[in-house]
Amino acid sequence: MIRGILFDKDGTLVDFFSLWLKAALEVTPAFLRENNLDDNAQMTDYVLRAMGVEDGKVDPKGALAYKSYQEIAEDICRALEEKGIVLDTSRVQEQLERLFNGSVTSGDISYRELTDIGQVMRDLKGKGICVGLATADTLYSAESCLKKLGTYQEFDYVGADDGIRKPKPEADMFLEFQNKFHLKPEEIAVVGDTYNDVVFAKNNGGIAIGVLSGVSSEEDFRGDADYILNSIQELPQLLERME
């Protein structure tokens, strides 16, 4: 029986593409300029490919889809080294965090909910289920998103990149959630739109629920996820079947 659910944020609760793809296209030229590198189309496309973005499409197993800023910085630095360009990874991480946070938390940003998040969380809690967030996003950006949507208070737990927690699929956020509410691993479901969310669930003894509302297709989940849904709108029916 499921007693706790950890939700990914982007691609699961809010639209990934209108937020992060747009941000990546804005941030990359600015990042290149900050490092005194050419921000021409060729170099911009090269760095975007290092992030897992090509021809306006996001690789579901690429960095932008699920990795932390530290991991994205490492990927970009490795790619630039192949061109003979050496940058400090810590500085690149700081730049990416600042530039992306500025893009996705700006005053005019509009987050598009994939469903009525607040209602879903209230319905789940009405069934005695603890609800939490587990995202690769920074804590500041994640909380800013939830507060702007008016849903922050609906979450019993918010797990994000605070510079201390290890990112998914490491156990940190799963264990925090598990211990806070005295749950068994098998009582926790992880709902997310990437294979990384599935690994996060499976590595920690939880139930993996993949959703097709973000960057992944059914093929990306098949054989690994315990359940595959079109979106979290189908979650209530799934929980009823599982009971």
**Second rung of CATH, namely the architecture of the largest domain:** 3-Layer(aba) Sandwich
Number of domain units = 2
How many whole angstroms does the radius of gyration measure?
Answer: 18 Å
For the biggest sheet, the summary is: 6 strands, parallel
What topology, given as strand order, has the largest sheet? 5-4-1-6-7-8
Contiguous helical run count: 11
Q: Kindly state the mean pLDDT as a whole number?
A: 96
Topology pattern, helix = H, strand = E: EHHEEHHHHEHEHEHEHEH
What kind of assembly state do the chains in view correspond to?
single chain
Keywords: Hydrolase
Organism: Claveliimonas monacensis
InterPro entries: HAD-like_hydrolase_sf, HAD-like_sf, HAD-SF_hydro_IA, HAD_sf
Pfam families: Hydrolase
Please provide a written account of the structure.
It is a single chain. 46% of the residues lie in helices and 14% in strands. By secondary structure, the chain is α/β, with parallel strands linked by helices. The chain has two domains: 4-16 and 112-242, Rossmann fold (3-Layer(aba) Sandwich), CATH 3.40.50; 17-104. The strands form two sheets. It has a six-stranded parallel β-sheet with strand order 5-4-1-6-7-8. Helix 1 (17-34) crosses helix 2 (41-50) and helix 4 (69-81) crosses helix 5. The relative contact order is 0.17.
